[in-house]
Amino acid sequence: MQILQLKETVSFMKYRKIAMVFSALLMITAITSLVVNKLNFGLDFTGGTLIEVGFDQAADLQKLRQLMQEKGHDDAKVQFYGSSRDVVIRLGLREDVKAEMLGNEILSILESGTGQKVDMRRIEFVGASVGDELAEQGGLAMLTALICILIYVAFRFEWRFAVGSVVALFHDVLLTLGLFSILGLEFDLTVLAAILAVIGYSLNDTIVVSDRIRENFRKIRDTLPVDIINISLTQTLSRTFITSITTLLVLSALFFKGGALIHGFATALLFGVFVGTYSSIYVASLVALSLGISREDLIPEVIEKEGAEQDEMMMP
Amino acid sequence: MLNKYPLWKTLMVAFIVALGALYATPNLYGEDPAVQVKGLRGVEANVATLDTIKGHLSANNIDYASIVLEKGQVLTRFRNPEDQLKARDMLDDNLGKQYSVALNLTPATPAWLASIGGTPMKRGLDLSGGVSFLMEVNMKEAINKAKIGMVADFRGDLRNEKIRYRSVKEDGNAIVVKFRKVEDLEAGQSLLKKRYRDLLLNTDEDTLTLTAQMTELKLKEIREYALKQNITIIRNRVNELGVAEPLVQRQGKKHIVIELPGVQDTAKAKEILNATATIEFRLVDTEGDLTAALNGRIPASSILLTDKSGKPSLLKKRIMLTGDHITDAKSGFDEYSRPQVNISLDSAGGSKMSNGTKSNIGKPMATVFIEYKPTKRRDAEGNIVFEKVQEVISVATIQARLGKSFRITGAGSQAEATNLALLLRAGALIAPITIVEERTVGPSLGAENVKLGFQAIMMGFGLVFIFMIIYYRAFGIVANCALGANLVLIVGVMSMIPGATLTLPGMAGIVLTVGMAVDANVLIFERIREELREGKTIQQAIHQGYDAAFSTIIDANITTLIAALILFAVGTGPVKGFAVTLSIGILTSMFTSVIGSRTIVNAIWGGKSLKKLSI
Question: Would you call A215 and B136 a contact, using CB atoms and an 8 Å cutoff?
Fold first, then answer.
């Protein structure tokens, strides 16, 4: 079976202006949202207490909220989690020294207040200092990853490709963060992990394309760099699509079957794979092209073998 | 001949996959309910313990599947959870305070698999249920205490050498000594320089001050000591909890991770972790009548305490010294290479000790360990009632007037000396710890996570499977075989590596690897199709396809591996689990999709003259 049968080279780069404007617009939107709405940081980063409980029947959120208020927990946020029987209660950080005991306290309030058997599903408490450290480490991790990858790609290919792929990665990460900001989705540690996986995936795509561009620069002579890039993108397009399809297939399995805990993770990856596919076609190659990639940059200098002529002469 | 692997290469691939499958099999067996009996505070379970347990079990008519003594603990397996619970309660009542009795689920790995090191994957707390704590050591307090101790030490040293000073004060990270005369300043400097080699001394003759700065090395030493001490204490306390496989581990510079699988009563766990232990030194009442005391006639100035084997001692009520003066306790050997414990005190402790011992040379002195253990009772407000447990841990004869540092010899074996040193340190917590993070996962959520993760893997796998067969036909089946082998290898490697833990994000990592692993095959197959379109022969196309795609696959995977490794370095808990499965998955997928699939392709199509290829 064949999904894409391309007889002719698609001139991807013809639309580069449109792509540039499109990407720029998306990035500006993402940045604006990040500045205005900020990220909805999860418990891992903000600190606080979270209690997830399961009831036998559908829970009455209004009643639970009232209950929390009566017991002096005015800042309690009560929400459904996954189903109407699962409820998550979030509380902010307390000056109180016994903050780590809060989870157990809420649990007993729920049990005595509703008169129902409550199934403790999880309690999470994160102190303020831990959250700050984590945010710092997370940012550092992302930066380190980008730098390491920049060095590797520069070493294996050429600096123009390295810049191209890192710009593409930056583009993907920014847009994914922007999505979380615009939709107000919770940004926790698993989402951070997903974003690092997006970096890995998007790079995977970019490298496959760059590899082909390098190969074609060596194989095809007397062709403009734009055309070389178009040819390479066309040749790898089928692979790009199929891999995206298989990855999206497994991710949708994760999204629909993985449960509420994995939802943010799956969302980040699903979106990341989409933009990653787009950016490997338009962002990475476009940047490399704009930086003036040419045949000479990619051809290793040929060292003439000494005595080559002599060998020939000695042939019978 | 093109596309033919030598036999050894085919066999090697088959062998590796078979090995992975072998080590993955322990995961197919279930778990046996078991009860684990462990000795507390240096007591080791031995053959006698084993016999005692057997005796108790048969006396109470509790049926068990097997009972073994291994690594200083007795593990009894049962046929059903009811017997297990009955046995736990019975043993807990009968064995007493020297042992901790814990419920456990032991892998039911067959003996032959276990003998070659086969174990199932370790499950993270998000899958097994349980609680994890992150505790932070208050380093500021540790350094503060060290500074306060040094101020007192400086004063004592200067006074003893009759060097007159105006004041000794702490100032930031330094200690400032002010003198009245230049001569005193110089004398003070040479004295302190000799005694405290790990301090940086600076003098200013104009203001007659001496500044002693703690070196970075000294500060680091203090921090390390505070962290290690806390870890030892927590290990001891966690053992009291009766948890089957607890984990106490340092994380970074000032954090300690505690994982307690299966624990649900987090309130009790927290109270125990926050409980305090102390040490007291008391003189033994040698005049009092021990037999009379045992019959209830205890002298008014004395108390009756026992050691861990139940041997009673009559001790003076007056406490000579409390454990908070201990700055360090280390086990070692004396000049006759007998085990001993070296104890260092702060200067206030030193003078107390010296006053207390000067008129008591030749008399025995006892070390008492005091702990607050939780009981099963609760008070009116529902808080756990703590019971004060006092235990004599050593009785030694005072040989001379003791000072700031002394030693206890005759503590018994090397192991006992080490344990005594540990207990002495436990009694003098230099830096308080606080719980800064807690994550509790209930058993229902844990079981649900396992189910969901498994379903997601199966569904993802199935979808990719179907897609590949439709799209690449015969070659799709080859890719699917490689994918199956990859899954087996991931599980096998995860089971083999002792540190690897399967978590929910880890399962997501496996799902993601399934999706990305086929990428290598897609690259290769697309390349083969291209080569065929260019008019190459079938054998050449296969050869070229694999060859040309190889370097691309390596580059693409290495960069993903970089991201995974960084995640591994920074991440903790579940996220680390994701990094682990992702990294392992990348490595195994490179093997299965490049070498593994090639082996199959070569075996089926290699070296034959073909007209058409099912790709």
Answer: no
Greater model confidence, A72 or B453: B453
pLDDT tens for A146-156 read 888 888 888 88
Confidence of residue B430 (pLDDT cuts 50, 70, 90): low
Question: What's the pLDDT tens digit per position in B335-369?
Answer: 888 888 888 887 778 888 888 888 888 888 888 87
pLDDT number for residue B468: 93
Residues A117 and A220 in one domain: no
Give the predicted TM-score (pTM) of the model.
Answer: 0.77
Whichever domain contains A137, its CATH number is: 1.20.1640.10
pLDDT at B298: 82
Residues 458-497 of B with CB under 8 A from A: 459-461, 463-464, 467-468, 470-473
Residue B346 sits at φ, ψ, to 5 deg, of: -75, 175
How many interchain CB pairs under 8 A, A with B?
216
For A145, nearest residue in chain B (alpha carbons): B563
Q: Please, how many CA atoms are within 13 Å of residue B46, restricted to the half-sphere of its CB?
A: 4
The confidence score (pLDDT) of residue A309 equals: 45
Asked if residue A27 lies in contact with residue A174, where contact means CB atoms within 8 angstroms, the answer is yes
Cβ-Cβ contacts under 8 Å for B427 (sequence gap 6 or more): B277, B278, B279, B323, B326, B369, B370
Can you tell me the distance from the alpha carbon of B188 to that of B185, in angstroms, rounded to the nearest whole number? 5
Among B56-65, B112-121, B271-280, the range scoring the smallest mean pLDDT is B271-280
Segment B240-266, tens digit of pLDDT: 677 777 888 888 888 899 988 877 677
Query: Which pLDDT score is estimated for A307?
Result: 46
| Contact by Cβ (8 Å): A280, B494 | no
Which residue segments constitute the domains of chain B, with CATH numbers given? 7-26+442-605 (1.20.1640.10), 30-108 (3.30.70.260), 140-219 (3.30.1240), 276-416 (3.30.1360)
Query: Which pair of tokens denotes residue B99?
Result: 């042992």
Residue owning tokens 């500045």: A35
Q: Do A101 and B267 touch (CB under 8 A)?
A: yes
Q: According to the model, what pLDDT value does residue A100 have? A: 62
Query: Are A147 and A117 in a shared domain?
Result: no
Give CA–CA dist B226/B222, Å, rounded.
6
Which domain, by its residues, includes A230? 12-40+130-298
Chain B contact set for A103 (CB, 8 A): 266, 438, 440
- Does A265 contact B560 at a Cβ distance shorter than 8 Å? no
Question: CB-based contact (8 Å) between B522 and chain A?
Answer: yes
Is the same domain home to A36 and A61?
Answer: no
> Does residue A313 lie in a domain region?
no
Whether A107 and A16 share a structural domain = no
- Interface contact A259-B559, CB threshold 8 A: no
Contacts A233 to B, Cβ<8 Å: none
Residue from A156, A242, A273, A277 whose CB has the most chain B CBs within 10 Å, to mutate: A242
CB atoms within 10 A of CB A133: 15
